[in-house]
Amino acid sequence: MTERLMASTERSLRIQADDNLKSMIVGTVMRKIKSRTWKKQRYFRLQEDCMTIWYKSKKAGNAHSTFSVGDVEAVREGHQSEVLLSIADEFPPDRCFTLVFRGRRGNLDLVAESAEEAQSWIKGIRKLIDNLENMGQREKLDQWICDWFKKADKNRDGRMNFKEVRDLLKMMNVDMNEHHALRLFTMADKSQSGTLEDDEFVLFYKMLTQREDVLRVFQEYSSDGQKLMLQDLKDFLREEQLHEDEVQQYALNLIERYEPSDTAKMLQAMTFDGFLMYLSSSEGSIFNPTMVELYQDMTQPLCHYFISSSHNTYLLEDQIRGHSSVEGYIRALKRGCRCVEVDCWDGPNGEPIVYHGHTLTSKIFFKDVVTVLSNYAFKASQYPVILSIENHCSVEQQKVMAQHLTQILGDKLLKSTLDGKIPIGLPSPEDLKGKILLKGKKIGGLEDSMNGVVDDPLTGEVSDEEETAEIDDDHHRNDSIRHRGKKSKQRLSKELSDCVVYCKSVHFSSFKHSRIHSKFYEISSFTESKARKHIREAGAEFVLHNARQLSRVYPSGLRTDSSNFNPQDMWNAGCQIVALNFQTAGVEMDLNDGLFSQNGHCGYVLKPAFMRNIDKRFDPENPQNRDGYNPLSLSIQVISGQQLPKVNIKEGSIVDPLVRVEIHGVQLDQAKQETRYIDNNGFNPVWYDTLQFTVHAPELALVRFVVEDYDKTSKNDFVGQFTLPFTCIQQGYRHIHLLSKDGTSIPPSSLFVHIRITKLT
């Protein structure tokens, strides 16, 4: 077998030597559970490639399903999902486990026949996930080649005839004329046997994936056309990639890390393979790797950060009939979300429940949400989580809520100021690490509760979100939520009030009123339309307001389908808590993921300096009027695409890709441009199209790359996207690793671009 296929096979054999994996390859009958009443037996087994899990019904018939181990994010043991909790009385926890998939795909809940079998699968899948995560780039490529070989070798004879190769090209999104395909096939068929085996297939694959675009760059800097000597590589890094610091050391590190040839390493040189490996790595990526890590100052007041925030976190679908689930909280928290929402109502037997009031959405217990918060709040980030309470409960059930919060969260719940003294400003994310903050109504002020002044339980509006009011403002009617009361007068329990420290919910009157009367610990919520109105009428005032205290913006009550508004408009005004429906994929969540993909995915991003300074004015409608105005020109040459995924399952359908680049930022910066489309080539399309943009507020801008399948008769199909902050862009020749609609990676799909950012003179 070729070196590549051998390495991959060796790895498979090494893995297969593991006892747990051996029994997974043999296979097991387990129950697949969808609900208390839906429990069906399925036969599961791991395939020989140690990458795919195959399962089918025990009944006769050929229908079966498969999924890739790469799609599994985690394995949970025991009754760790709502479905398994609902059957806890029927099956013991040591036989139960849950496979959690990436993106928005539903969990797979399983019950094994014995605790030993469950452990075999739990440990085995975890080992396979670890193995995948620790694979180097070369190994991933080997695996990729092996996968294609296996897919194409239909009759399993270890060799491929020309018909199998033609079918393979279709699978790979390549529309190649027969003559050219036959020419490559014949060139690769060194043994002249009429079939490709071993080395011959790797050669065919290499010819197929030959990167002429990268070769052109390589040869431009190579003194002899064969390799980059150290000086050549340094010239490339300085002139193209714009590296300035310790270039010699950086070049040597790249050779050490990415050069596969030991001979070249001894010469301190880089071959084409090493060069391609570097450009495909995280260091050759468009996203500056130093900004993927935690790099910002985390000691500023809380109101100086954008905070990743979710709306109606308990919903997995729409706002009217959707399923309420603690899974919504787990998913949001694992994505780095730092502000989650609960809608609380009186429930049966004195237990408060969470659901979207006056609708048909299902209900969950408040205590279950608090338990999930305790278990998952700090898995993705150590920085504080804000629990935003929309409270519709009676005083009795509010006391129960306070009890659950205190007992279940313990020390994680912040119940007093950090040093026990009356503070003069908000603490920082650093100060609040590992803490959960309650946002809600409070009796009196922070100073009163610190001084021991306690009023009688307050009578006031406890509810935070008045969605009906907005619907009436817009002269709309929506039967399912029309009858919600606009202002519900309700008494507030002292116990729940005492749990609110730095995030007291207050009604917003005006910026002038806030400037004179507001306290730093007060926070107002705005519907998207109210926030837009304030931005239009008093953008600079809104920015100043947000330099002093927190603001939260949430979707209109009209968005019953759980669609999202554009969060960028709100970030432009410095609003920190911009709450989105995390369950709904689309451009809005791409922007949210893009903004928070920096700074260690910790859920906090420091606002630009001009938005934090209360002595400076910044108007998002007129960014050119600010101090330090420094517009930039962004030039993007879209060179090529690599192995774009098929979007149309129809037999023989091949993508006609185009690339659109969108700038999302202040109004003046909003822009989009696209390349031409390439006919029938999703495998290795080449454009060399240059797109130019002017960016007036780069500190606030996000850049979104979208690949679409062009269709002249209907809407283009989405192929993949990648969104990042303008400030995190690395210049020069860069790869962009595309993401799916769900924000999960789709290797090895990528774009190759050249980026230049210059000052506008």
From TrEMBL:
Subcellular location: Cytoplasm; Endoplasmic reticulum; Membrane; Nucleus
Molecular-function annotations in GO: calcium ion binding; phosphatidylinositol-4,5-bisphosphate phospholipase C activity
EC class: hydrolase
Its membrane topology: Peripheral membrane protein
Occurrences of domain EF-hand (ranges): 140-175, 176-211
SUPFAM superfamilies the UniProt entry points to: C2 domain (Calcium/lipid-binding domain, CaLB) (SSF49562), EF-hand (SSF47473), PH domain-like (SSF50729), PLC-like phosphodiesterases (SSF51695)
GO BP annotations, alphabetical order: intracellular signal transduction; lipid catabolic process
Keyword check for Acetylation: no
GO CC terms: endoplasmic reticulum; nucleus; plasma membrane
Catalysed reactions listed for this entry: a 1,2-diacyl-sn-glycero-3-phospho-(1D-myo-inositol-4,5-bisphosphate) + H2O = 1D-myo-inositol 1,4,5-trisphosphate + a 1,2-diacyl-sn-glycerol + H(+); a 1,2-diacyl-sn-glycero-3-phospho-(1D-myo-inositol) + H2O = 1D-myo-inositol 1-phosphate + a 1,2-diacyl-sn-glycerol + H(+)
Location of the PH domain: 22-130
Alphabetic keyword roster: Calcium, Cytoplasm, Endoplasmic reticulum, Hydrolase, Lipid degradation, Lipid metabolism, Membrane, Metal-binding, Nucleus, Repeat, Transducer
InterPro entries: C2_dom, C2_domain_sf, EF-hand-dom_pair, EF_Hand_1_Ca_BS, EF_hand_dom, PH-like_dom_sf, PH_domain, PI-PLC_fam
Region: Disordered, residue numbers: 454-489
Cofactor: Ca(2+)
Descriptive protein name: Phosphoinositide phospholipase C
Organism: Culter alburnus (Topmouth culter)
Lineage: Eukaryota, Metazoa, Chordata, Craniata, Vertebrata
